[in-house]
Automatic annotation (TrEMBL), chain A:
It holds the Pfam family BPD_transp_1. Its main location: membrane. GO terms for biological process: transmembrane transport. It is found in: Cell membrane. It comes from Alloyangia pacifica. This is Sorbitol ABC transporter membrane protein/mannitol ABC transporter membrane protein. PROSITE patterns: ABC_TM1. GO terms for cellular component: plasma membrane. Belongs to the binding-protein-dependent transport system permease family. It is a multi-pass membrane protein. Residues 69-280 form the ABC transmembrane type-1 domain. InterPro entries: MetI-like, MetI-like_sf.
Amino acid sequence: MATKASRAAARLMISPAVLLLLGWMIVPLSMTLYFSFLRYNLLMPGMEEFTGWTNYRFFLTDPAFTAALWNTLLLVGGVLLITTVGGTLLALLMDQPFWGQGIVRILVIAPFFVMPTVSALVWKNMFMNPVNGLFAHLAKFFGLQPYDFLAQAPLGSIIFIVSWQWLPFATLILLTALQSLDQEQLEAAEMDGAGPLSRFFYIMVPHLARAITVVILIQTIFLLSVFAEILVTTNGGPGVASTNLTYLIYMQSLLQFDVGGGSAGGVVAIILANIVAIFLMRMIGKNLEA
Amino acid sequence: MGRITLDKVTKSFGDVNVIPPLDLTINDGEFVVFVGPSGCGKSTLLRLIAGLEDVTSGQIRIDGEDATDMPPAKRGLAMVFQSYALYPHMSVRKNIAFPMKMAGVPQDEQKRRIEAAAKSLNLTDYLDRRPGQLSGGQRQRVAIGRAIVREPSAFLFDEPLSNLDAALRVNMRLEISELHNALKTTMIYVTHDQVEAMTMADKIVVLRAGNIEQVGSPLELYHTPQNEFVAGFIGSPKMNLIRGAEADKHGVATIGIRPEHLAASTESGLWQGTVGVAEHLGSDTFLHVHDHGLGSEPLTVRVDGEMPVRHGDRIFLTPDESKLHRFDMQGLRA
Amino acid sequence: MARKVTTRRKAVVTVLAWLVGLAIFFPILWIVILSFKSEGDAIKTPFEVIFSSWTFESYATVQERSNYFRHFLNSVVISLGSTVIGLVIAIPAAWAMAFVPGRRTKDVLMWMLSTKMLPPVGVLVPIYLIFRNLGLLDTRLGLVIVLTLINLPIIVWMLYTYFKEIPGEILEAARMDGASLKNELIHVLTPMAVPGIASTLLLNIILAWNEAFWTLNLTAAKAAPLTAFIASYSSPEGLFYAKLSAASTMAIAPILIMGWFSQKQLVRGLTFGAVK
């Protein structure tokens, strides 16, 4: 609904953003795709040649890939489970009236603003370190043997650290959704004779379902790319015990300088991320219409 | 001056044709009301005149000059929007000053016009407030003030009273009419409310689906509606439209009789029926008469407020033959 | 409507909520405490840590040994630079999509969003090679470019949702009042959108400040922002808890404060308007 003049102006104003993003998407993507079919190692310059699907075959049949895929799923799934369940419970708690709501809210969301390298290093050193960490001190206080979290349960420890970072996000979004629930609906249900449990399951849960889906989808996008936390804690080890896909591709590309192999891995990662993205986009798209 | 001519103007949104070819002339100083049900294209027509939308084809002339491709700012028209569209971050004074600032009117002249407008609109005490601190009626006045100071060749009003409560609406209606009498400037006013149209207009344009159904003065439309649609739309309560055997007696497809042109009696009359709901307004009473054998719709009758009728009473009705409207198969006046 | 709540119930909830809140916040509190201790005290048992003496020496050491301030400045330049450039590109685009929507506006929005879902590792190799060839590796400019591009979709989206809430009639009124497109943007839209623009700015500074994939992979010593600088503590040498704590405290404090101010916008920005 506008005039030709304003439509022309609009096209002009939107084009820088569109062109930049188009370039950002197309140039590197086509390069990744191109490299993935080349034998290309930065340590052996000038030896590039077309190899067809070889890079993909090597990448997909590498036992490290299977392990990394599995670790990625465990990492994403574990963090999602902890943050959505924990986030729902926390949101329900914080939706109750109590003294100091504002301050507690601030305390709870704080971890989300801590940069990944800081939170990973703090948990690694100050808490999980088997000699000087707080958990070790606590274990010794109770006469127990200190546990070397990152060596014994590297993936579990990383899941824990990442969950700490993302719990605030889930809580905040679910709390926002909960607060947007019409109080009159709850009162109507109460008048209709619904007890607290029925109110929770028949009114609150359906209302939250949408927000929970959003939390799951958005976190998945970010969690598929967890990198810094692994880099500064375990370096993916021991072995490949805590290597996820992102980290595996990073190692192949920038540590082993295998551009071809890394690119093949990159294409695989893009495909996997797109599967999630399609669902997310559909949800957001629907919302755009509403 | 403010003579606006539309010449074969059309408007389509994609494949949807909102305004079929339309011709209309609005004379200088006229108060013209576009009225019609929602979706009839009246607002679109106003926006075409304003320049907020492009015409698909045809020509718009303002004072003889082709304005079809002029941007809104150059057309010399002022508009009052349904939501008032006041700038929330500016004081009342700055809101009113904005069009003058854009036009580069000198400061002291701006000041003079703001004060004159504020005085005539009772806004003097509110000049330093923000729109958010004003009531609906006051916001409406600010919007009008912002339009007045531009000294436009015509004012455009897009359903300006629909966000006000009933009592305020009546007041503002009078104020806008008085403003027109004082300024003698062309005004084009869009509304879906036929009462506003009847009470304010010099000339009413009745629209349906982008087509002009009839153009005329309020009383012309009331006395000689050119078709069934206008007959049913103008006048309150609505005209009774009767088809079938009773219409055949008059040799037409439909006859129409306004509620105020039916004589009611408890003893005798041409038609008879049972009183359903009786709406007592004090001065008048509106009766909804059922079982009259003239069709499935109840007949509406206006009777004197003192007439003692109740739900379920038997009642006789006689139409005033001279006030009977006759329509043919196409719904046109016969 | 306020529901009736007994004081006893409220007290129980208060205790529970504060316990949970403090537990979640504890790691942050702990590094702030450790940052004011000597290295020798920082590794002792918690009880001993609390009652040991307080000192600023770690803050001084961090600055002295590693030129902390330079990395801090890198972070400021990179996050602020990428956000401001992003806004300059995004404001006109969001204006166009919010107020002059066309048939394809929705598709453009969704497509912009989809670029955000590209896993960064998928384009790591080409970006690395392009940067190496253009001499952009380990430069602030390089990071400003990358972070502008990866956050641009979020900036456009956030602004779009804010602009959508401004009634189009007000802009039309400005047009009727004789304002040119430029004046319409400067005198009417921008002042009305200031709160939205400010929260977009805030959220994107936070996201850029904490970005830890590209900053780690594209910088070495020179242009490293705080994320990369802190990562250098992953290979420990001697006692470093207090120094790590001091460096971390300084790295997270400004963003934590900004974050607390932008809670509400955070939800909106990160869910692309799907939850409000």
